[in-house]
Write a structure and sequence with these properties.
Nucleoside Triphosphate Pyrophosphohydrolase
């Protein structure tokens, strides 16, 4: 099965609107800090994708940047450049593979975020990590969740990042916006989630950021963590 395809061409099989949204009071800065400080017992819903790559596993980290703006929290996401060999054009968190001189998974996420989008580490307060998620391409990804002060100025690397945008955390933590799709049939079937964010481009025209795959899966695990 090819690794490159248009996920928006696969029909929506179900929407998880039967599940409750994370209560809004759990999405405040104070509540987020408390949840990571006193983490409850929980299990991630999504852990690994069907492996379609023969490469050896590679450890990586992503930063899940929760930007605080006027008391509200948004999630900062990127759109990867179309020419990249892994996950071209997809919506992702800033991050990448671990390097030998990275002392921790957190250090990897912070370094990659600064290299990719120019996010200075002084604006970032790490809350904690979520369980690893293994992608279809063999990356074992640690999501590093952090609060980010909003007065930063980004400098995205055009060789890696085509766009940077933010989505309200409350939108992503509502399963009414979580859609289910299936790729393939029979033993080859692979289910994936999408969370499309419809907004406006700079010129005022409609624009849809199609959040899906590993990014949607890690957001779904964040939903599980915040909702227990």
């Amino acid at each position: 099965m090819p690794l490159s395809f248009d996920p928006q061409q696969f029909p929506v099989l179900a929407i998880d609107d039967h599940l409750p949204a994370v209560p809004i009071d759990r999405l405040s800065v104070f509540a987020l800090r408390e949840r990571f400080t006193r983490s409850p017992a929980w299990q991630p819903e999504l852990v690994v994708e069907r492996q379609l790559s023969g490469r050896a596993p590679v450890h990586a980290s992503v930063l899940v940047p929760l930007v605080v703006r006027d008391g509200q929290v948004t999630v900062l996401l990127t759109q990867r450049a179309d020419h990249l060999s892994d996950h071209p054009g997809q919506i992702s968190f800033p991050g990448g593979r671990a390097e030998g001189d990275d002392p921790t998974v957190i250090a990897t996420a912070l370094r990659e975020a600064e290299e990719e989008i120019g996010l200075p580490q002084r604006y970032v307060q790490v809350l904690g990590t979520l369980p690893t998620y293994t992608t279809v391409t063999g990356f074992i990804v640690t999501p590093v969740v952090a609060l980010v002060e909003s007065d930063f100025t980004l400098r995205a690397d055009p060789l890696e990042v085509a766009d940077v945008f933010e989505v309200p955390l409350a939108f992503l933590m509502s399963p009414a916006h979580h859609r289910r799709h299936v790729l393939g049939e029979g033993d080859e079937a692979r289910e994936f989630l999408s969370m499309p964010w419809n907004t406006q481009a700079a010129d005022g025209s409609p624009k849809c950021y199609f959040i899906w795959g590993a990014t949607a899966a890690m957001l779904r695990n964040l939903y599980r963590f915040l909702s227990v």
